């Protein structure tokens, strides 16, 4: 019988195929034949296999189209699903490892999907969104070129008066943010001054009021529904008068609450005519000003068929002669489509939430960096376990299974795992969603709640992950021939040679080490920033916002309190980033120099214990103080003065033309955060610019002292809320962004190390399973438990060491040469950070390895060898 079958096979098979098949079978099973089976049984096995193989080859071409069709038949898909469920249930441990690995990797991807799903719907509710544009400015001064979201008011006036072909021009000013008072109630409200045609251009539904007239008169205001309830409770706001920004406004309309997916976020809108009529606005918001870019935004509504390039060319042409007269300023203008604002270019002075392409690219890169290792883990473990499923695949091939059927079977299994992983990933997503929002600077304009579309994106994403993660093992298994599938290759011991598994483990642990180093380095920078010598005292100083209080009256009343040692006044809080600069001119030089300034009184320097190197402090003579300035050491270097004493009496010209004389020199101190170098700086005196009272306290009962201050405050400022914060807390708040970075690096590091350890766990378990009999034999031969642990673990430890050798120099270069240098005054990355990061990585990695190798080494050899 065997001879007849063999003869028939030879008649139906080419000599080349026959020679290859027999040689492969014979060479592989030669030892098996001579030791385990009789010759007859061996040839019966060969004949049976070749018979099935010949039948399959004969039918393959004729049945190709039929099988291709049935592979995608619903009944076949159901069959693939059932087989996949059974296979995954049979190998529970590896299923759990793969599900957890993919779930962890997918969790950050769900954050990205929800984020992008919401972001791409920004400003889509405006009816005329395709015809709306914002005028943006590209401003160049002596030091840098900045793209701004703002534009001078004169641009709007020029377009209205002289350019035809624009349907509407809308001016917006964002200075309307202040305490709003109505009767006895005061609450902070944020909003804009806008032109009367604002609601005709932007689609913000008006619930009450006439859209054509609500903003037509000066001192008219419309309020959102939520702000109206907050301000007036159950009363009807229409006709009510509130005081805000030192002006009285009549409520003429009620707006529907502003959607979160709007790049403008406001609670009230006031007539632009109000701003123009105020004396302060007439000097700073003149309609013919081309040099003031602050808080001014211009939007255009263009016709259906418009030419933005022509408008840009016109603006740049008419503005060129104006800026040619300016020594230190140049500006050009561009039109930015409404749909390109969020996400869009990185612009300074954004009117609302700013989502720029650079930040999004970093987010996408980090997401891919976490997701891909999770997908590769699945492929790695699946291919490593290929030997366990070789007979299954070979049998299916012999029975007529096609390549596409095998491919679909393994893709189906991966999709099932990805869908299960999606459930766990969604749970992680709900846990970290609120924390993720808290790390966003513009979290007010972001909503990560899920809706139908977001859930649909999640499911599509899980299907995509199933395809990506499963395509490598599916292709690997589908390409196997029956001969390759049914022959029993010896199990590879250890990790000999360079393989995909090695590269994956090394790259994963290198990435994990990088994130761990990120957490350690950021924490060290934060500690250094708080302990840095700022050049002034911070302890026991309470900064009180003056608001409308008179500085002198406050000084007199608070000085009566026992807990108050001294009081000074200032326009800014030193060391927190609140500062301003002007262009100062030397009398002997035609060019101007940028100098930072702060307005303080005569007690400020002594109150903060600043060092006066030469000259005198401000005096009680207010008129004389306004003519003098106290400069820092860097000021001397900028203007070429070698000795502090030589600076006393030197005069300089302010932007308005007034002269100011140096009366003193202080030692350099950090008036700005440590991110910036100390530059030319001076103190000036102007009581009208004072914003804070700096109160040095001497008390053991802080709560009682502040309560006393609140009582005194009510006598001074009436209904204004007492707002105060300790100086050292304000300094800490300045560097709170480090905590955000620690959270971010910590979260990403946790994901990366979890995926790495899960992948490593799967590989260790698989290796131990395949070497269990080797371990039993070694124990019988007298090997100790320690030596077996070393044998099973050394290959993995080598890979972790290689990962460390690769990651340490790369991470060091990034953190020491790039990251920490974003802060001018920083501490370099040292050996301690590297040692701590390495220790954490090896601790987690070795714990994963030893959790399996110790158990295998302690196993009784009788149990592992009894099946032989």
Automatic annotation (TrEMBL):
Domain ABC3 transporter permease C-terminal: 364-482, 747-861
Mode of membrane association: Multi-pass membrane protein
Domain named MacB-like periplasmic core: residues: 95-317, 510-673
Gene Ontology terms for molecular function: transmembrane transporter activity
Coiled-coil zones: none
Localisation per UniProt entry: Cell membrane
Pfam families: FtsX, MacB_PCD
Transmembrane segment boundaries: 93-120, 357-381, 406-429, 455-478, 499-523, 735-768, 796-815, 827-850
GO CC terms: plasma membrane
Keyword field contains Transmembrane: yes
Principal location: membrane
UniProt key word Cytoplasm: no
InterPro entries: ABC3_permease_C (IPR003838), MacB_PCD (IPR025857), Macrolide_Exporter_MacB (IPR050250), Permease_put_prefix (IPR047699)
UniProt entry keywords in alphabetical sequence: Cell membrane, Membrane, Transmembrane, Transmembrane helix
PANTHER family: ABC-TYPE MACROLIDE FAMILY EXPORT SYSTEM PERMEASE COMPONENT 2 (PTHR30572:SF18), MEMBRANE COMPONENT OF TRANSPORTER-RELATED (PTHR30572)
Name of the protein: MacB-like core domain-containing protein
């Amino acid at each position: 019988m065997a001879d007849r079958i063999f003869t028939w096979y030879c008649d139906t098979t080419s000599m080349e195929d026959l020679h290859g098949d027999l040689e492969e079978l014979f060479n592989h099973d030669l030892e098996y034949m001579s030791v385990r089976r009789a010759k007859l049984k061996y040839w019966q096995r060969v004949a049976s296999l070749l018979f099935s193989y010949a039948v399959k080859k004969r039918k393959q071409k004729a049945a190709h189209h039929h099988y291709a069709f049935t592979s995608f038949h619903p009944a076949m898909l159901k069959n693939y699903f059932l087989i996949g469920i059974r296979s995954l249930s049979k190998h529970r441990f590896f299923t759990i490892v793969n599900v957890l690995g993919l779930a962890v990797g997918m969790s950050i991807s769900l954050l990205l999907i929800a984020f992008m799903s919401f972001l791409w719907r920004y400003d889509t509710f405006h009816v005329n969104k395709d015809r709306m544009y914002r005028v943006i400015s590209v401003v160049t001064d002596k030091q840098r070129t900045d793209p701004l979201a703002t534009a001078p008011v004169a641009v709007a006036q020029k377009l209205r008066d002289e350019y035809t072909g624009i349907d509407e021009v809308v001016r917006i000013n964002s200075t309307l943010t202040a305490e709003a008072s109505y009767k006895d109630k005061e609450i902070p409200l944020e909003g804009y001054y806008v032109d009367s045609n604002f609601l005709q251009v932007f689609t913000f539904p008006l619930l009450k009021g006439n859209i054509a007239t609500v903003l037509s008169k000066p001192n008219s205001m419309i309020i959102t529904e939520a702000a109206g309830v907050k301000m007036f409770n159950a009363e009807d706001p229409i006709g009510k008068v509130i005081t805000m920004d030192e002006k009285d406004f009549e409520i003429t309309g009620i707006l529907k609450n502003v959607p979160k997916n709007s790049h403008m976020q406001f609670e009230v809108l006031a007539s632009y005519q109000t701003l123009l009529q105020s004396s302060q606005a007439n000097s700073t918001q003149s309609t013919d000003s081309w040099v003031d870019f602050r808080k001014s935004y211009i939007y255009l509504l263009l016709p259906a068929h418009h030419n933005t390039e022509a408008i840009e060319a016109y603006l740049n042409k008419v503005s060129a002669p104006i800026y040619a007269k300016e020594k230190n300023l140049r500006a050009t203008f561009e039109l930015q489509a409404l749909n390109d604002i969020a996400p869009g270019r990185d612009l300074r002075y954004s009117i609302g939430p700013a989502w720029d392409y650079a930040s999004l690219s970093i987010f996408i890169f980090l997401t891919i960096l976490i997701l891909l290792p999770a997908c590769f883990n699945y492929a790695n473990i699946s291919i490593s376990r290929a030997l366990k499923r070789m007979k299954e695949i070979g049998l299916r091939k012999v029975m007529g299974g096609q390549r596409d059927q095998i491919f679909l079977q393994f893709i189906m299994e991966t999709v099932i795992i990805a869908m299960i992983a999606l459930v766990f990933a969604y749970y992680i997503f709900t846990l970290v969603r609120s924390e993720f929002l808290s790390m966003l600077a513009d979290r007010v304009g972001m909503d990560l709640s899920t809706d139908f579309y977001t859930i649909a994106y999640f499911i599509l994403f899980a299907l995509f992950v199933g395809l990506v993660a499963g395509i490598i093992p599916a292709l690997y298994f589908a390409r196997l021939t029956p001969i390759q599938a049914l022959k029993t290759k010896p199990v590879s011991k250890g990790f000999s040679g360079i393989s995909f598994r090695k590269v994956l483990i090394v790259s994963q642990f290198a990435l994990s080490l990088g994130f761990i180093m990120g957490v350690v380095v950021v924490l060290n920078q934060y500690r250094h920033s708080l302990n840095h010598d700022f050049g002034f005292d911070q302890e026991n100083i309470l900064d009180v916002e003056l608001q409308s209080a008179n500085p002198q009256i406050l000084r007199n009343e608070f000085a009566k309190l026992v807990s108050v040692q001294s009081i000074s006044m200032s326009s800014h809080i030193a060391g927190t980033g609140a500062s301003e600069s002007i262009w100062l001119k030397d009398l002997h030089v035609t060019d101007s120099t940028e100098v930072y300034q702060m307005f303080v009184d005569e007690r400020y320097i002594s109150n903060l214990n600043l060092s006066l190197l030469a000259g005198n402090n401000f005096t009680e003579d207010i008129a004389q103080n306004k003519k003098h300035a106290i400069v820092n050491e860097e000021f001397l270097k900028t203007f070429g003065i070698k000795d502090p004493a030589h600076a006393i009496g030197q005069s300089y010209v302010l932007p308005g033309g007034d002269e100011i004389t140096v009366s003193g020199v202080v030692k350099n101190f950090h008036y700005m955060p440590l991110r910036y170098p100390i530059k030319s700086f001076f103190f000036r005196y102007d009581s009208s610019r004072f914003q804070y009272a700096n109160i040095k306290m001497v008390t053991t009962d802080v709560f009682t002292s502040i309560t006393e201050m609140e009582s005194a405050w009510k006598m001074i400022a009436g209904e204004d809320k007492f707002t105060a914060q300790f100086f050292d807390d304000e300094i800490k708040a300045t560097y709170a962004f480090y905590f955000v970075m620690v959270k971010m690096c910590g979260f990403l590091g946790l994901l990366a190390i979890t995926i790495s350890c899960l992948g490593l766990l799967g590989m260790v378990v698989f290796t131990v399973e395949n070497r269990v009999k080797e371990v039993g034999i070694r124990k019988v031969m007298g090997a100790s438990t320690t030596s077996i642990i070393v044998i099973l673990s050394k290959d993995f430890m080598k890979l972790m060491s290689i990962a460390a050798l690769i990651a340490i120099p790369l991470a060091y270069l990034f953190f020491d040469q790039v990251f920490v240098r974003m802060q001018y005054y920083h501490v370099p990355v040292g050996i301690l950070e590297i040692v701590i990061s390495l220790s954490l990585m090896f601790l987690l990695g070795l714990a994963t390895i030893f959790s399996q190798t110790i158990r295998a080494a302690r196993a009784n050899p009788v149990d592992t060898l009894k099946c032989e």
